[in-house]
Protein 1
Amino acid sequence: MSGWTVQVIDEAVPEFSALSPDMRARFQRLFRLEEGHGLAALVMPLARPVAGRLWELRVTGRDGISRGLYVAASGKRVVILRFFVKKTQKTPPREIEIALKRLKEMEP
């Protein structure tokens, strides 16, 4: 076991719950992969850098494409800041802004 944990912040829990069951299952698989093998397991096409410390988890399912925006935090933690259904080729700037705002709010 790698010792890493995945934390979903409170604001992102309703977003996660709103995803389709197959999308939630795919994200949960990625969470287990990361917890078992560390950040090195999250490589393209599963994850990619977005802005600064912000990274994007990528899942595709029957209902389309979903993304989770996250950061690696101290103490071997991955903190999920935002979930959304992707409708365009590029990650919408508004989604990145929301995640960065939540990151700023959680830091002391």
Note: Residues 50 and 90 are 10 Å apart (CA to CA).
Protein 2
Amino acid sequence: MIEVERKFLLTDDEIERLTADAQFFGVVVNVDTYFDTPTFDLTIKDIWLRQRGERFEIKMPMHTKLDRIANQYDEIEDEMKIREILNLSTAGKMADALASSGYVPFGSLKTTRKKYRKGDFTIDLDLADFGDWTYQIGEVELMVSDRSEIEWALQKMSDFIQKHRLEEAPVRGKIIEFLKQKRPAHYRTLVEAGVVKSGECQ
């Protein structure tokens, strides 16, 4: 599935408008650990590999420019497909295969998520705990099954944002904020690679 997503730093009024008449699915707590090589071979290509619980996921970029309207990623959760993408051994545990190929954890964060559904949209209100500080962010997401649907999804997302009068301002995602605060050398590398716009959104 392809994820088309926008991130927001929401005011209380915006949260009220966004969640009005939405279906509330409850609160979940996720602990995500992100992996890369010491030379950032994945993240400088805007590829994000993480472990959530016992499951590994990889997000492959489908957008082609930094000044994009929304993030667009192909989310892959099938472990054998991930091993194929990363050219890992198919034997043994995933964590061991990653370590053998030089992949190491570079960040871990705990997120408390309030999850809603409104029409075709998923709304996530996240509070990320980085240990010594927290970061609150809202995400509006629309999933499509094929690349040909992306333009339709972008227009639908734009209409949804205008309808709910959300302020469109640059926002850093959780892991990008973590890197900016905790791993500035990694963050600067992503800025230099054109993956992240300095001081702005991702």
Note: The chain has a mean pLDDT of 92.
